[in-house]
Design a protein that fits this description.
The structure is a homodimer of 198-residue chains.
Chain A: H1 6-16, H2 23-35, H3 38-54, E1 56-57, E2 64-65, E3 79-86, H4 89-97, E4 103-107, H5 125-131, E5 138-141, H6 147-160, E6 166-169, H7 185-193
Parallel strand pairs in A: 3-4, 3-5, 5-6
Antiparallel strand pairs in A: 1-2
Chain lengths: 198, 198
């Protein structure tokens, strides 16, 4: 042999296409599948296809959704005057988990990155601007505090501010529970700059 | 929201059933699936079902195979007088990769483990004994050098030796490239016991 059956090779090739899976892990996963019942495996296969075919992007905020308009955008209790702009749906979920924010979202599907050839036209910037039709009071730019995230935030603020909409950026500073000894210089500088009165 | 679409939850639940995958990794994998093309995802689903439904156990050696008799057992160039007994198909593949061994295999599908309630009757011991019909000269016991693997090897040797078949056990010792400083006592003791003349 020196090779596994072709079906195992094919399945582990598929596992390798998942984020962060190497050759050995992919093989291990393929073996796990052999240990499942046939019903389980068929359920797995169905779940794969369902996730890909039934999930779309909300027509308003571009977040992933199983309906045309996502639950947040269609919730009458959300504050429609505030839009929180995030890079992807993971970030939207992270903000949502805080259970503090009651406004809407806008998912950019990336950040501006000349290195990767991603310009504003590949993001949902046009769709964001189209939403600023008078009812929106504030746009919170919640892209990540990375160079690309900062660049994108600055780019968006320059586009949005002239429209008379308030633009804010999430704060930088020490993470709660963090240790000053291990904080990087830039974070600490921002934490000091952003100090508030007690 | 505060929850992902149901399809994502369902898919990540399936990923969690794989060996060594936690909640966060499962979610990340589900997101990876969204990034694939629909064709890729359908191919993935097909590969899952194919691996489960088309792979069976070789009628002779009980290794995984896509045919009734596996490529090793049906290869006329393999030495039919030697059988290497391993715990599972991963171990058989590991031996096969050395490209040194030219005999056949026998896959036990586990080891004797009273703790886990696995007795010899749950392994392919009966099938192994049925293969020792005179043509077999040697059985190499290549279960892992763990307590369960050793127990299983001793159990099998007591069954097989009376049949007039030579029984051998893979050697213990220092792994090649290893460091004596970090070797455990038992390994080092076995390495010294098993020393050979230069």
């Amino acid at each position: 042999m020196a090779e596994y059956p072709e079906q195992i090779e094919r399945l582990s090739d598929m596992f390798r296409r998942l984020d962060g899976i190497g050759k050995k892990t992919a093989l291990r996963h393929a073996f796990s599948v052999l240990d499942m019942t046939e019903d389980e495996v068929r359920g797995f296969a169905d779940a794969l296809v369902a996730a890909k075919t039934e999930i779309c992007f909300c027509e308003v905020c571009k977040n992933i959704s199983s309906e045309k308009i996502c639950p947040v955008c269609s919730d009458p209790n959300r504050d429609r005057s505030v839009i929180c702009v995030v890079e992807d749906f993971r970030a939207a979920m992270a903000v949502e988990k805080v259970r503090e924010y009651r406004g809407l979202y806008h998912v950019l599907h990336g950040v501006i990155s000349p290195m990767k050839g991603v310009g504003p036209d590949k993001l949902t910037v046009k769709e964001l601007l189209a939403r600023l039709d008078g009812g929106v009071r504030e746009v919170i730019l919640a892209t990540n505090p990375t160079p690309e995230g900062e660049t994108t935030a600055i780019y968006l603020s320059k586009l949005i501010a002239p429209l008379g909409v308030k633009v804010s950026r999430i704060a930088n500073g020490m993470p709660v529970g963090g240790d000053l000894e291990f904080a990087d210089e830039l974070t600490l500088r921002r934490a000091i700059e952003g100090r508030y009165d007690l």
